[in-house]
UniProtKB/TrEMBL annotation:
Belongs to the small GTPase superfamily. Rab family. The keyword Nucleotide-binding applies. It comes from the Eukaryota. GO terms for molecular function: GTP binding. Keywords: GTP-binding, Nucleotide-binding. It comes from Marmota marmota marmota. The keyword Cell cycle does not apply. This is Intraflagellar transport protein 22 homolog.
Length: 185
């Protein structure tokens, strides 16, 4: 069975924990592990299977603490991650700056592909609503950006997250196939 590790990172109070709970609750939460600076949610998504359609995939969603006092744990969080989701509040100018750091540490320096990264502009209720897309500069502007608004359109982010999980699974199974080819050739 294929297992994928997905990190939720980003500034404090941006909605990572709320979103992580929402997105994993649809399927079975088999385990809940509170640890220092991170919470690990295990889940499956019935819509996401590995390349040979029938095989199940298991996901670990690592809901990481946004506080930089946990910086010493970051290498352990990043280790063997297959995907990084950066959650931020598009109405906060400081977040736009901060997510560049999260991208640099967790995606760029870890040599992950941009397709393994997803930006979520999370809209908390009463935060002014849709103000259009935030103006991001490269390299962030190349990444897939989705909006989440759990009060107004919760299914939208569920669907986008499923799409993202599929793309992560594809890249994991492709790299696994390549490794297998290297061994047998
Ligand atoms: N009702 C509601 N509250 C939210 C939502 N997103 C964030 N919040 C509030 O914002 C606070 C911070 O969110 P949290 O997910 O803990 O942020 P984190 O630090 O990024 O994990 C929470 O205590 C919630 O009360 C949302 O979609 N709906
Ligand atoms: Mg949190």
């Amino acid at each position: 069975m294929l297992k994928a590790k997905i990190l939720f990172v980003g500034p404090c109070e941006s909605g990572k924990t709320v979103l992580a709970n929402f997105l994993t609750e649809s399927s079975d939460i088999t385990e809940y592990n509170p640890t220092q600076g991170v919470r690990i949610l295990e889940f499956e998504n019935p819509h996401v299977t590995s390349n040979n359609k029938s095989a199940r995939c298991e996901f670990e969603l690592w809901d990481c603490g946004g506080d930089s006092k946990f910086e010493s744990c970051w290498p352990a969080l990043m280790k063997d991650a297959h995907g990084v989701v950066i959650v931020f509040n598009a109405d906060m100018p400081s977040h736009l700056k901060e997510i560049e750091m999260w991208y640099s540490c967790f995606v760029h320096q870890q040599l992950l592909q941009d397709t393994q990264c997803l930006l979520i502009a999370h809209h908390k209720p009463g935060s002014g609503g849709d103000t259009g897309s935030p103006s991001l500069s490269p390299p962030l502007s190349k990444l897939k950006l989705v909006h989440s608004n759990l009060e107004e359109d919760p299914e939208e982010i569920r669907m986008e997250f499923t799409k993202y999980l599929k793309s992560v699974v594809n890249s994991v199974s492709e790299s696994r196939d390549r490794e297998e080819m290297l061994i047998i050739t």
